[in-house]
Design goal:
Rossmann fold; 5-stranded parallel sheet; 44% helix; alpha/beta
Length: 251
């Protein structure tokens, strides 16, 4: 009976660990690995912590001043292939397609803090609203964002909080009517950034139509910016980064 009790306890512990989300020189960005259904990670790695593990090593060994890490999902991953990030030796793209904010939180230490950046640009929320890892309440999503911010500030890393880009519908999860949810969450992000003295960068206003969709000239699928969309975002990002590095709040 004692042996059976121990086996059950170990099994329950392993089950809980599996289910619960844990909390200059540019290295090459690895090619995205084939992914199973959205939000499920790769090869059992729920948060895809291994995705950037190898390419992080030279950055960890060679810390540069004013390094900026862009943490996010597929929008940030796509931006990382654009010249703005790819050709800047101080910028590091750490986006992963399909990820939600709890997944980003799990890999925040390895993909952000370990690189000792001066600043992190956080863009999260699209896939939370799309329910890629299941339904989340607004308060839960807010909590994951707050946790990333607290980790950054606690390690002397400045923060730029980015708005969720606009979308009227998600092609991989139709019918969620995300436009209003995105507006509401962006309002919270702006207010939270102001309360914490962080820089908030409003890409939504530049990319959105009046009904909350992505402007067609800026996206082929209504969710992900194309080259023109990223080009429209760039001056806002540059201004926000410089404001944050100077320690000034941007409204």
């Amino acid at each position: 009976m004692k042996h059976m009790h121990m086996c059950l306890s170990v099994g329950l512990l392993l089950g809980a660990l599996t289910a619960f989300p844990a909390l200059a020189q540019q290295s090459p960005t690895p090619e995205p690995r084939a992914r199973p259904p959205v939000g499920q990670g790769v090869d059992g790695d729920w948060a895809d912590v291994a995705r950037y593990r190898d390419v992080n090593q030279p950055l960890i060994a060679n810390v540069v001043s004013k390094r900026v890490v862009f943490m996010g999902d597929s929008i940030t991953e796509g931006w990382g292939r654009q010249p703005f990030i790819k050709d800047n030796p101080s910028y590091v793209g750490r986006g992963i397609s399909g990820q939600t904010s709890p997944q980003m939180l799990v890999r925040f230490r390895s993909d952000v803090l370990a690189l000792k950046p001066a600043l992190v640009h956080i863009m999260a929320g699209t896939n939370d609203i799309a329910q890629n890892t299941g339904h989340e309440t607004p308060e839960e999503i807010e909590g994951y964002i707050k946790d990333m911010v607290e980790l950054a500030l606690g390690n002397n890393v400045k923060v730029v909080l980015a708005s969720i880009p606009p979308s009227k519908d998600f092609w991989w999860h139709r019918g969620l009517e995300p436009a209003l949810q995105i507006r509401a969450f962006n309002a919270w992000l702006r207010e939270y950034a102001a309360d914490r003295g962080l820089v908030y960068v409003d890409y939504w206003s530049v990319l959105a139509t009046t009904d909350g969709a992505m402007k067609p000239e800026y996206s082929a699928d209504g969710v992900h910016p194309n080259a023109a969309g990223f080009e429209a975002m760039q001056p806002l990002a540059e201004a926000a980064i410089q404001a944050a590095l100077r320690g000034r709040e941007r409204h």
